[in-house]
Amino acid sequence: MTIATEAPSVHTTQRNRRIPFEELQDPGAYVSNATGNLFRVPADALVGGRSPTIEIVCKQGTMMTKLSDDPWIPISKARQLAADSDLSVNF
What we know:
Layout: E1 17-20, E2 28-32, E3 38-41, E4 63-68, H1 75-84
Antiparallel strand pairs: 1-4, 2-3, 2-4
């Protein structure tokens, strides 16, 4: 008996990996655990000394959950992934 399994989606690779915002090293789509805001982090944003640079300043730090390796994941898919992971959705 053969059981068919669905191949993992390109959009969900390494999904649900929680990481402090200051430690982001990989491009992708992230949701803030505190606010539910979506952050699209392209590879260019992570190159040292180049624009655009993203900075979040707060007392307690910001934990992010990676939704997708693709920073340009469609909003509807990002909402679905966040909701499926019991994360706040504010986008």
